[in-house]
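Hi P.,

Sorry for the delay on this. The queue was packed all week, but I finally got your sequence through. Input first:
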Amino acid sequence: MTRILLGAGASVAVYKACDLASKLAQAGHEVRAVLTPRAAELVSPQLFEAVTGQPAQVDEFGPQRRGAMDHIELASWGERLLVAPASADLIARLALGLGGDLLTTVALALPAGRPRVVCPAMNPHMLAAPPLVRHLETLRGDGWQVIEPDEGHMACGDAGRGRLPEPADLVARLEALGLA
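Then the structure:
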């Protein structure tokens, strides 16, 4: 099957990323999670390791690092980059090519032609904000696939478009795109 890098951003929906990682691994894919530091404050990387049997990483520096240049090793290993959930901040950093954490440097180091998928998850007003709309268009122009969020009740109490699709639905959408 496929080697998938699952990038997880700091969205309340990060709990769904754990289930997504599990479902992808159960389908036969090798899944390595790369969490932003803020995402790791919401859910432990160990949970991703437990459900995938693969290492999960947050930092490239310090005692948790695994190699001399983790971003290069991960980018070489991954056949696909799936960022789910993607917060507004993470989408902006990806669109602008900023490499301030392990996930964004992996995205920059991923060889050309490797599929990249981003799954926004945020408040409906944030999703509709002009800067975010521009950043998503930039990512599309750079070759990223964007899996549109679902509508529904949000953790903040608002309702509207911005929910990360359920993990089983995400897997089905990825399969329909030939990415899983």
